[in-house]
Every structure is written in structure tokens, then in C-alpha cells.
Fold this protein.
Amino acid sequence: MADIVIGIGTSHTPLFTLESKDWRYRAQADYENPALNLSDGRTVTYEQLLAEVGPRYQSEASPEVLMKRAAECEASLDHLQELLTAAAPDVVVIIGDDQGEMFDSENQPAIAVCYAEELTTSDAFGHDELPQWIRTMGTGYMMDENHSVRGAHEFGLKIVERLIETGVDVTTVANIRPRTDYGLGHAFGFVVKRLLRNRETRIVPVLLNTYYPPNVCTSARCVEIGKKLRHVIESIDDGSRVAVVASGGLSHFVVDERLDRGLLRAIEEHDHAALGSVPRTALNSGSSEILNWILAAGALESLAVAWKNYIPLYRTPAGSGVGAAFVAWLPAA
């Protein structure tokens, strides 16, 4: 049978693709965002957020602190990369969200599995007319051009067939044709480029709709699907060494340390009841990517959290930014 040998959880914020001096561009987006999402379901402007909480994170958003935080994030990503390399997986199942890179309102599946033999990334951030910082971000996400990535056709197809048998009605993607502004997005390209270092490891993308109602899975459903995914993977009788990777999150675009730390504690304790009860109000906009982690946690229930790190990245005085998280699951000793 196939064996899940490692689990990885990583944020994939654009900050990881830029030098800390350029994080100001993302901060400017926060200042201009008319709907910063809070974990109680409200959306506010930056001015409203500042009036509510005050400039309490001003020192955290200083250039000196952000440079230090950037170094801490790079060290964490390096550690995950080393663990993933040591695990030597044959197949990497990446659970990420699509943000208009492949799907839109004309066709928005709740969950899709891509089982193409050859995968293609989107080139949406590679256009010459875009600002340099966006094109730099695009390079970090493999979205500067239509890159070819090796897929796992037979393995992915078996995942689809057996998920269907367990009652998970997945959409399928059997082919990704290279074309302008279309292809796998940042949730997948970041993992391939930064953690796999473009190695020829076969990839099975699991695309979860986290951003776009009305067909966003609940946290409880993500736990359930994750558990079924584990059993499906382990039922594939080909001896593959498998890595399961959650890409995205945690809270953003207003950092909520309480939400993030509670989630990481529930993951470490295999508290599926807590993971399945994360309310929808806390899972809007960027924070919705927490669902990728919840689904992965269900799939990794037989492994133990061997290492984790959490770094809140406050890039404005009022506390907008990203709760950056890094987790490695390994077989219990």
C-alpha cells in the first residue's frame, strides 16, 4: 500500500517571495482594502480597524522587525524543505485553494483533483506591464510563465475513483493546456518552487474552494474529507511514499493570533472536534485558507506533529498582515 511518510503545512504569503523592504507594497494594499476581514465575520476599512484597536503593532511593523521576521520565515521554510527532502516522497499531494487561476463563477467546484500527467502553472504575474514587485512575486509562485510540472496521473486517478466510492463527489481536471492567465496558481507553484526546489517529484493538486461562496465546504466537512483521503491514499497498492502538504493561511488580512494558535493546538492534539467547529465567520477572504490545513490534518491523523513554528507578521500599525505558520507531521516513533 502507499505510505504517508510526511505532512507539511506552510503559509504561502507573497511576503515569502519578496525582500522585507518590499513588504510595504502588501501593507499599502491593506491600507486601501475596503473590506479587511475580521474573525467575527465583520469587514472593515483600515481606518475603522485603526480606530478599533489603535496603533498597537506599530513597533512590530517597523523595517527592523520585519527584516528579522523575514529571516525567521526563511529559516522555517528551509527546515521544512530539508524535512521534505529527507522523507524522499514519490508523490506529493498538495491541498491548496484556487483564486481565479483556473476556476471562476462560471465553473467553481467545491473540491477538484487534478490527475494530469503534465501540469501547467499560470503566467498571470509575468506580464511586462505589471510592477516589478508583482513580477518578482510571480517568479516565486512559478506564475511568471506557463511552467511545466510533473503530475501523477495513475495515482491521482485512483484518488478520484476511490474518493467517489467513499461519497466525496470531486470534480476532475484531466488536462491543463498552457494558455494566457490560466493554470495552477500560487498555492501550488510556491510549494513546488520553494519546498521541492523544482525536483521531478510527481504532484497531485487538490484544489479546494475556500474563497468563493456559496459552495465552500464547512470545517467539519474538511475534516471528514481529509480522513477519507488518508484511507484512499493508503489503499493504493503501489508502495508509493506520499507527502501531504497544506498550502496557505493562516489568518489574514487581519492577524488573529488567538484563532491561529488555537488551530495549531488542535492540530497538534488531533482535536478533530475543535478543527471541525471553526466557524464560517472566521474563514473569510485569506483566512479561508485555514480550510486547507483542516483537510490536511484529517488526512494526517496517523502522524504526529514533530515540529512547528508560528510567526505573526504585522505589517501595519493596526495589525493587518498574515499569521505565518509552519508545521511538519512525521510518523510517531
Remarks:
- The mean pLDDT is 97.
- The first helix runs from residue 24 to 32.
- The chain has one domain: 3-325.
- The longest strand covers residues 303-314.
